[in-house]
Specification:
By secondary structure, the protein is an all-alpha fold. It has one domain. It has helices spanning 2-11, 14-36, 60-69, 73-82, 87-92, 95-100, 105-139, 154-183, 189-207, 238-264, and strands at 144-145, 151-152. Strands 1-2 form a two-stranded antiparallel sheet. The two termini are 28 Å apart.
Length: 269
């Protein structure tokens, strides 16, 4: 199965494990910073979502971590894993040999995209698990206070955290589609990575400018923090639904464009 081959290839690359180590270390650093801080519960606009609530339940550790990682490190991970799809193979000269086998170009590109999304999702879930363990060991995994004042049981908190992680992964899947598309346009994997992460950064900057609010609903990053609504009672699904539709639209549009470019790409050039 082509998808399995691409996934195994990606798993044996050093950068995949480097990303796992770096991302997995962030929730541990976050907990240590709280333990050592003389003012461990910052509040206000400068504090990450959920940060001030970690002391009340370790369940908040993965949520605060993922909110922080969404700004740069998760988009960087998605960019690194996806932008190498075609450009990396082309720069190494292995792309022509891949296509020499009876493998359709569309199938190959979709397999590469699928492996990138799978790995990004695995990294998000890895951060979630490390965050729960680190936060639980230090602050316990008691009932989770919600942003609306109610309290959730540990089981109720757990399923919401898993859904939040999967929702965050959907946003990264949209960005990964952009990465794969850019990868079909160049033979420079670093260049494709820079362009992809640049798209995420510019999108976040534009989303912060109130004068450009008319375009905000169409920006890939606009709904990335909508998972916060999972931790209200009752849960508000509207923003997350809009986010999922937007993420899917980005994935479909850029993968269709990527397949179109790749079908016509001269791999011998």
């Amino acid at each position: 199965m082509l998808f399995r081959v691409e996934l195994i290839k990606a798993l044996f690359r050093w950068r995949t494990w480097a990303l796992a180590v770096v991302l997995g270390g962030i929730p541990i650093i976050l907990v240590i910073s709280l333990v050592l801080s003389s003012q461990p519960t910052p509040s206000g606009d400068d504090a990450p979502p959920f940060y001030a609530l970690i002391l009340r339940s370790g369940f908040f550790t993965p949520l605060a971590t993922l909110a922080v990682l969404q700004v740069f490190l998760l988009p960087l991970s998605a960019s690194l894993l996806s932008a190498d799809a075609v450009a990396g193979e082309a720069s190494l000269g292995t792309l022509r040999y891949l296509l020499a086998r009876p493998v359709g170009r569309r199938r190959l590109l979709l397999s590469k995209y699928g492996s990138a999304v799978t790995l990004v999702t695995a990294l998000v879930l890895w951060v979630t698990v490390v965050g729960i363990v680190a936060g639980g060991l230090v602050y316990g995994l008691g009932p989770l206070p919600t942003l609306s004042g109610a309290t959730l049981s540990p089981l109720g908190a757990l399923w919401r955290i898993v859904v939040a992680a999967l929702y965050i992964s959907s946003g990264m899947a949209g960005l990964a589609a952009i990465g794969v598309f850019v990868s079909t346009l160049t033979v420079s994997a670093p260049g494709a990575t820079v362009v992809t992460i640049g798209v995420a950064i510019v999108s976040q900057i534009v989303d912060s400018l109130s004068a450009l609010r008319i375009v905000h609903p169409y920006l890939l990053t606009h709904y990335w923090l909508a998972f916060v609504d999972l931790f209200r009672v009752p849960v508000s699904w509207s923003a997350m639904t809009d986010g999922l539709v937007l993420h899917l639209a980005y994935a479909v549009v850029f993968m269709v464009a990527g397949v179109g470019v790749f079908q016509r790409k001269d791999v011998l050039a």
